[in-house]
Amino acid sequence: MSQRPTEKVAFSLRNPAVRAWLYQIFAVLLLVACLGYLLHNTITNLTTRGITSGFDFLSRGAGFGIVQHLISFQEGDSYARVFVIGLLNTLLVSALCIVFASILGFIVGLGRLSDNWLIRKLCTCYIETFRNIPPLLQIFFWYFAVLRNMPGPKQSLSLFDTVFASNRGLYLPSPELAQGSIAGLLALLLAIVGIVMLKRYNRFHQIHTGKYWRVWPWYIVMLLVLPGLAHLLFGPALHWDIPALHGFNFRGGMVLIPELGALTLALSVYTSTFIAEVIRSGIQSVSHGQHEAARSLGLPNTVTLRQVILPQAMRVIIPPLTSQYLNIVKNSSLAAAIGYPDMVSLFAGTVLNQTGQAIETIAITMSVYLIISLLISFLMNIYNRRIALVER
């Protein structure tokens, strides 16, 4: 049989492959031209205004105070230290909101599936109310309508004369290291190691014998007895600095400013509504046959939920839950609206206005948010792979 001659692809605009390559080349050249124009325009404007680009401004003194800082700060410290303080404040409010929103969302999500009509309707009203109010308005509500209307320091609300709440903030006892701190830390680590070993042995025993021991009382005993012995033998590991009223305000201890409280409350309540729906949908995705099988074995509802339903629901819950955690970090930038000294308010706000280094400050802020989001996604993906069900 004679072979069919090989057809050559003609370089013609009628050829779809040629047109596709030309379109791609044109798109790349257009993108490069746009970026070049923006870069040239930026350099020209900076030169005209006498603004030098670069990151040398980070070493200059800030010259302003910060109401909340987790590390020491003076007005003469550098802008680089201002950036670190803003980053720590952002991480603080993000971590608090993630914890509180997760706990509240889990409780409300389970309440949506409750057999009790009143609990189910209350949880539904909670979700539909706070989910449909913009988070910025909720921040304003908690800050201006609630926290700022609390009594002053002299009429502050007190709990055991150690915790005080006023319109200046929440004052708490501050822990400080004492002479037995090293021994107390070692005792606590030893208790944690003992708990982990006991938990693994209990699981090994359950696999081989089918019997499960109730060991949580031993957890409490180890957490109390070992640090207690260290306290008796080597002295207290911590002593507490109790806040006290002096003049028109409190001194000593540590304070959670109203801006932090309003931001934490608003973002926790707002995000918990979405997390509750994620929890509800994840649990409902598990086949009802799993509930019936656990019930036929005589398992209590709490054990069924913890050992049967949730492990299967987590593979559905984790991906959307990751998105909600990312939203918390990004929504924390709304702190600038009430003056909370987060990274956006300090670095992309005050520092930008003082130095005029708009490109550098905005680029650093955007890069940090990107890194934080990617790190959260990375850690959640690792956890998701660990709990994923391996199908045969």
Automatic annotation (TrEMBL):
Membrane disposition: Multi-pass membrane protein
One of the record's GO molecular function terms: transmembrane transporter activity
InterPro entries listed in its UniProt record: AA_ABC_transptr_permease_3TM (IPR010065), ArtM/GltK/GlnP/TcyL/YhdX-like (IPR043429), MetI-like (IPR000515), MetI-like_sf (IPR035906)
Compartments, record wording: Cell inner membrane; Cell membrane
Superkingdom per UniProt: Bacteria
Hydrolase keyword on record: no
TM regions (residue ranges): 21-39, 82-108, 177-198, 218-240, 260-279, 334-352, 358-383
UniProt GO BP: amino acid transport
SUPFAM superfamilies: MetI-like
Chief place where the protein resides: membrane
A Gene Ontology term for the protein's cellular component: ATP-binding cassette (ABC) transporter complex
Limits of the ABC transmembrane type-1 domain: 87-380
Keywords carried by this UniProt record: Amino-acid transport, Cell inner membrane, Cell membrane, Membrane, Transmembrane, Transmembrane helix, Transport
Family: Belongs to the binding-protein-dependent transport system permease family. HisMQ subfamily.
Protein name per the record: Amino acid ABC transporter permease
Organism this protein belongs to: Rouxiella aceris
